[in-house]
Structure formats: structure tokens, C-alpha cells
Amino acid sequence: MSLLTARNLSVGASTRSGDFPVISDLNFSLAPGKILGLVGESGAGKSMIGRTIAQFLPTGFSVTGGTLEFDGDNLVTMDSHKRRNLLGRDIVFIPQEPLSALNPVLTVGQQMREHLLRIGHTDQAPWRERALAAFESVHLPHGAGLLDKYPHQLSGGMCQRVLIAMAFASRPRLVIADEPTTALDVTIQARIVKLIAEMQKRDGTSVIFITHDLKLAAQICDEILVLYAGRPAERGPARALFSQPAHPYTRCLQLANPSMSGERRGLFTLPERMPGLRAIKDLTGCRFASRCPAVIPACREAEPPFLEIGPDHVAACIRPEIAATIMPPPPLPMPETASGEPLLSVDKVTKSFVTSWSLLRKTTEFRAVNEVSFALGENEFVGIVGESGSGKSTLARLVVGLDQPSGGRVVMAGRDVTANRRDDKAFRREHVQMVFQDPQSALNPRRRVASIVTQAIEAAGKRGDNTARLDRARQLLAEIGLPPEAALRFPSQLSGGQKQRVNIARALCAVPRILVADEIVSGLDVSVQAQLLDLLLRLRQERGFAMLFISHDLSVVRYLCDRVLVMYRGEVVESGRTEEVFSAPRHAYTRTLLSSVPPDDAQLDWSPDTVGDVAAGVR
User: Which of 103, 172, 192, 351 could form a disulfide with 92 if both were Cys (CB 3.0 to 4.6 A apart)?
Assistant: First the structure.
């Protein structure tokens, strides 16, 4: 018996330039109580499937063929009144960005009350009790206090749990979770996955789990559907598909993820980008052929049929046996770090924030960073890991000089810059640059790329002529792997990975000795992430700079960094060589972080239950 069935489903876009395929010949069946994972890069068509189920397609997009049935009813031809009654009750969505999904001008309680009324709880009085029960079901502490808070007063993980509570309040039959763990800490990610699994088992709910993380999907899903450029590439049981991928694209996604066990291996980086709508229309043969490492002329002649690999396991490849032969390249070498005086020395640095309550004549002090000490050597990469709120980004701002420490010393290249006087700021600009997490908000949308990457020349008061700046911009773009013509584009004309490369090029323009990178690969596709990680290692060899690398992804830190600092509640609780800390952690909090990461081997059992209570583990 199937709850949701797609038969030859196709979605197209109609524009002035013609009609373009978006999703082609999609077939799958989701049984009650099962989890289907949709995996692929941005643009593969994962989120478009969710929009098709809700019939909430963008303007100009429509279903062009096939059927999509929910419990025997065709969602494509269903009248709008019946579909509206299904959505929010029997079919619910958990979006990727919880802060943008919650109304910023309404309290959490007001939004919860509106939702409960929407799904049929018409009695006004007990809505508060129902809301508190929903919060308790997703393990949100102090639920009564949350009702009067606004979304911006909660962490990302708490906002996501509020949305999960709202989603499961109606005991739905189908939940569509669109990247619900992207850019979250590993412990929060494990808790969110655990929550979805708990609610799914309690209510017998079916789940469509959309993610770009093949490793995570292999651990929690019953079946995985890998999409590429709007067409299914491979479909099968999760463990079988992960352990024996039969499509080269699936294998490439698997090898693009850094490993957390065994010897450090290289990352497979896919060339170019996934073809867009216009390119797909003119393609003949396999859509993955232009990027496939095992392509042969026959791949370009006709679209490959789906071949049976095993029980309920099919792949759209004429040579499915070739996937197993694709191997990662050798890892880029880790240069030796220079001995002698450290390039950066942080000695017992503290940062306190004071909150004043004027009516009560009371002040509260909060220490975001508490007596942190560490050193950064020449050409050394040091990772900083920990949950949100542990003080990682505050420490980075203290190093760069965006915040003033409340105590301690910061010594850079032999000079004490703690006071952050005017000449200290100029000295810092010469030696340290920061790369921010969100390239979209960090890049001026009104400036062209050439102007953005050469802003350091402006900051130094050396504007120069436009020709020289354009030449310098193109030189920097060549270093980061972008074509020269990108210099004249605006940020809106670039992909997310390209924007982050521009962000890095801008930081390198000043020829700094230290880079501070704050979650710069968070939320990116694994293929783009692999390109950026290898770019940083290559630039390290060519430029010889040191870096503080802040990340919640422990496998990325293991691949990139020589040493690691583990932060918890503003303090460094463990530090050392990355391999030593990750292979034999001594602190309870480090062990908790490591237990939250799904294993590389899909045959190993991993359960987010092992995460437990982080605070209790540390105490």
C-alpha cells in the first residue's frame, strides 16, 4: 500500500524564450510510516517536488505530465478547497530556514495559537495547554516562557523545534522536511533528526527528507532517491545505495564528503556546474555526462534507461558497474607549520556583555568568552568547534578587532594590539582579514565583483586607476578559480559557491598573514564545499597564510586543520592536534560532539539517542 505515488511526473517552466523541463519522468512510491530521502545538489529539483505536492509552484511553472497521488487522490487535478484542507493537517512542511518561516512580529505563542485554530482546534481556552504539550513532545525546555518570546529571541535549533511541534500538532500523515538540519550544529542536527524519527514512529507518519548530505540520508531513511538536473539518477534502499552506489553521480557525492574515520583521503570535486534549464532543453544523452569522470561517447547519444541493480534498486546509467571504480584523488599535502614565535598569541582573553535593567536598577554580566588562551603559528590552520553560543564567533571578532576584549591580551606578529588604537587597527588590517559565513549579506549587491574584491586597496587609501584595479581583480579571480569575465558581474549573477569565492578573494587582496573564516562552507552543497576546501589548501601552499577556521562540521575540520580548539560556554575545554583530539577525546563535551556525527560506513548503526544531554555530560 502506498500513501504517496508519483508516476512519470514532469514539471516544466514556460517563459518568453520557450518551454523548459524542470522535473522529468519522476517515479517513486512512499508507504505509510516510511522515510524517503531526496538527495542532490542545489538545482537538482528536490524542493520543487515539495512545491508540486502543495501545488505551490512559482509563476510560469506547471505540471506537464504524469500523476501525483496522495492516498489515491490526484494532487495535480484536485480542487483547491480539498487541497487546502489537506495542507497543514494531513500534509505538513518543515522548511529549511526557520527564522524566515516564522512571523517576526508575532510571538511564538500567537503563531502556535493561530496554527492550532487553523487545524481545527476551535475551542479557545485550552490552546495554551495544547501548545505546551506540543513543545514538550519536541523536548523544548521552559515551554511556558517560550510562548511570549519572538522568533529572534530563540536559537536556530529552538526555532526549528517550534516548527516541528507545529507540524506534528495535527498528527499528519505526510511530513516534507526540506533541509531541516542544514547549517545547524552537529548536536542540534542529531536532536532534530531524533525528533523527526520519534514523531514519525509515534504517529506512523511518512516523511520526505530533503537533504544534500548523502551520509545523513543513508542513516535515517528507508529509501533514497538521487536527483540530478531534474531527473532521477538512482533510487534504492538507503543502506544498499550508500554502500554500493550504481550511478557515478551518487558515487561522486559520496566521495565529496570528508571522512571522519580511517586515513585522511582526498575529496572528489565535480567540475563545472549542474546544467541550467536552457542547457537541459538542448541536451542529448545523459545529463551528467559533461561532469562524469567515466563518460564514454555512448553516454551522449540517448538518455540512459533505468537498469535494475538489486531488489528495488535502479540506476539511470548504461554502465552501473563503473561507479565502484571511481576513486578520490590523493589528499592535498598539509604543509609543515613554521617554528619559532607564534604569529598570533591570545592570552586569557575575556569578553563580557552587561545587560542593564533600569526599572529594577539591576545589571547582569554574561561572559561570552572566558579566559581563552591559544597560539597560531605561521602557515598553520587551527579549527574552532562547538555549538552555537559557545563563543566561537565572538572570539573571532576579538581577534579581528571588531570587538574590544574585557580582559587579557592579543599579540599579533609580535605587537600587542589589545588596546585597538588607530595605529593598531591599521596594523590589523595589514595582517588579518575575515571571511564571513553568509556571502550574500557580506557582498554589496550594487557593486561589481572587480570593485568588491579590490576594496582593500580603497581601505588603504590607494585607489589607483580603474585599469590597474581590474587587472588586480582578474588576477585574484584566477587564483580562486573564477573566469576573468566574472569581474564585471554583480553578486546576484553568481552562485552561492562563487559568492563565497569572491568573499575569499576580497580577503586575499590585502595579502594578509592570517585569515579568520567563520562557517564559510556551512549550508553549501558537498560538491561546492569540496572545491572550497581544496582551494584553501592550495592557496595555503601558494600564499603561506595562517587561518582560524570556525565550523560546526567536524569532518571538514579534520580534513583542513592541523590543530583544533573545542569551545563550550565561552571556554576552551580541549585542544590539540586534530587527529589526536578526534581519535581519543578526553573531555565529555568533545565525546558528545563526535558521537553526534553519522559514521562514514552506512552499515554501522548510528542513533541520535547517543547525543543525550550535552550540559549534563559536561557537568
Answer: 172
HEC per residue, 293-310: CCCCHHHHCCCCCCEEEE
CB atoms < 10 A from the CB of 277, how many? Answer: 18
Q: Which residues of 278-297 are buried (b: 16+ CB within 10 A; e: fewer)?
A: eebeeeebbbbbbbbebbee
Taking Cα atoms as reference points, which of 501, 456, 454, 504 lies closest to residue 482?
501
Task: Please enumerate in sequence order all residues whose Cβ is within 8 A of that of 247, keeping only pairs 6 or more positions apart, or say none.
Answer: 226, 233, 234, 288, 315, 316, 317, 320, 323
Cα gap 223→33, rounded to integer Å? 12
Q: Is 391 left (phi over 0), alpha (psi -120 to 50) or beta?
A: left
Return d(Cα 454, Cα 507) in angstroms, integer. Answer: 9
The residues spanned by each domain of the chain are 101-169, 344-443+500-584
pTM of the model: 0.87
Instruction: Name the strands in the sheet holding 546-550, side by side, starting at the edge strand that comes first in the sequence.
Output: 432-435, 514-518, 546-550, 381-385, 563-568, 571-577
Is the model's pLDDT at 617 over the cut of 50? no
Query: Which grid cell is 373?
Result: 588562551
Region of 544 (left: φ > 0; alpha: ψ -120 to 50; beta: rest) is left
- Measured CA angle at 287 (ends 286, 289), to 5 deg: 65
> How far is 69 from 74, CA to CA, in rounded Å?
4
- pLDDT tens sequence across 156-186: 778 888 888 888 888 889 999 988 887 677 8
314-328 residue pLDDT tens? 999 999 999 999 998
For the domain made up of 344-443+500-584, give the CATH fold.
Answer: Rossmann fold (3.40.50)
